[in-house]
Design a protein that fits this description.
Helix 5 crosses helix 6. The chain has a single domain, classed as CofD-like domains (Rossmann fold, 3-Layer(aba) Sandwich), CATH 3.40.50. The relative contact order is 0.14. The chain is globular and about 50 Å long. It has a 7-stranded parallel β-sheet, sandwiched between helices. It has a 3-stranded antiparallel β-sheet with strand order 5-4-6. Strand 1, helix 1 and strand 2 form a beta-alpha-beta unit. The protein is α/β, with parallel strands linked by helices. Belongs to the gluconeogenesis factor family.
Length: 334
Amino acid sequence: MSVKTYRIHKPKVVVLGGGTGLPVILKSLRNQGVDITAVVTVADDGGSSGVIRDSITMAPPGDLRNVLVSLSDMPRLYEDIFQYRFKSEDHFLANHALGNLIIAAISEMRGSTYEAVQLLSKMMHVDGRVFPSSDEPLILHAVFKDGTTAVGESNIAKQRKTIDRVFVQNQHNLEEPKAARKVISSILAADMVVLGPGSLFTSILPNLMITEIGQALLETKAETVYICNIMTQKGETEQFTDAEHVRVLHEHLGQRFIDTVLVNIEKVPEDYMDNDRYDEYLVQVKHDFTSLRNEGCRVVSTDFLELRDGGVFHDGEKVVQELLRLVYERKRVN
């Protein structure tokens, strides 16, 4: 008697962003029985990444480094070596993360940051795929409500002005950026696309402002989920409600595309934040559930809060639990 075998298809989840928020979600999503693709911003021009991208024609490595580590099962010692940052008194190597230098070296060897990340993914036993949003370093431009402009991701928040819109250009030829290989096909084939958590204007939107990626988000049949920030950010989202975050995303792509918003409703204890260490964060994001629904979004509001080291973060396990519930619910319906 023949025995039929049934292939279980893993849900395909694409996560877009950058900064410190993206690795938190990816680390908790790893080993959860889903097919993960991380699409990482390449508009960072500060710190070690900024110095390297100005020295070598390559996408900035810092966010890519952190994402690779978050999806890797390499031993903790190897992770510590890859993440080691040289001391400030080390002059030439001051403040460079060793992993950034390794990514830079392989990018030069292979002539492509994309190829370097694919090679490192194999070496580091990454569970999933990691793609830079573009194979070229991008320059982020901001246009403020008063008509003035700022150039460079690290300069925008310093202006402390209300941002009207942002856009990106290739660093070296100022042409319209192109998405890296397999980014678009991954978005179009996904069951779920997750944006955030992360800086709205400097970590999330730089990906969406690559025209091909923005168009793919409008065309994909995937559930598109936005993880709203817990705190407002200095020079970016001051006084923003959760609905205003979503409104900005919709305005930048010219139509509504966010299906579901995850909103933390747990209160941050008064006087908890270490404001010297986390000086970019201001106050807790206020809620406007009526306006969120007017933006066409389903709202999932619960306790996603994690307090540690004097800072306010998303609890990766709680967020991923909700993402899994949503993606499996969608697969059952379809």
